């Protein structure tokens, strides 16, 4: 059976999994357009994510995120790095699953805490104990990422280039 090479590739996973870093490299390798939902929300609204959280709360941010995803899913040929919480809405999970090849980038909370410790741009991690927060988020969201994913790639063992190789290997496993 011949199936088209996936037009859109969607990267999901927790903060620090490497969605933005890996997505950019992957897009270049595949000559696809790279979009990062977090950056796109900041660009469209002219304010940073922490400011959106401050003014509208997480709920306002989630609404903007959902609207953006619905828009972007109409496009073809994207590598889309998503925000870590995009899978919380079932509508988003359905859109992701039906409009592209979804890759869950997974890593242990300890590693995610280490990778995000110097960056204050993630409001959900601006707490006294980010590791405990990441463990809680991992427990809640890991099943949601797995529900939506066509492939799961562990990001704890290699550099971003190696994660890209692992994603390319998963894509080439698609029956085509
Ligand atoms: N495979 C990797 N090996 C080592 N460091 C990595 C790897 N992937 C990402 N990093 C580093 O981890 C940090 C977080 O990566 P990145 O911003 O890409 O995560 P993210 O999944 O996009 O997070 P968020 O959901 O908050 O947007 C960056 O400093 C990046 O350089
Ligand atoms: O995991 C999350 O809920 C978030 C992750 C980031 O990518 C941003 O989308 C925002 O900081 C929320
Ligand atoms: Mg990112």
Automatic annotation (TrEMBL):
PROSITE patterns: SHIKIMATE_KINASE. Pathway: Metabolic intermediate biosynthesis; chorismate biosynthesis; chorismate from D-erythrose 4-phosphate and phosphoenolpyruvate: step 5/7. Mg(2+) binds at residue 20. Its main location: cytoplasm. GO terms for biological process: amino acid biosynthetic process; aromatic amino acid family biosynthetic process; chorismate biosynthetic process. Substrate binds at residues 38, 62, 84, 141. Its EC number is 2.7.1.71. GO terms for cellular component: cytosol. Monomer. InterPro entries: P-loop_NTPase, Shikimate/glucono_kinase, Shikimate_kinase/TSH1, Shikimate_kinase_CS. The keyword Lipid biosynthesis does not apply. Binds 1 Mg(2+) ion per subunit. It is found in: Cytoplasm. It comes from Fluviibacter phosphoraccumulans. Catalyzes the specific phosphorylation of the 3-hydroxyl group of shikimic acid using ATP as a cosubstrate. This is Shikimate kinase. GO terms for molecular function: ATP binding; magnesium ion binding; shikimate kinase activity.
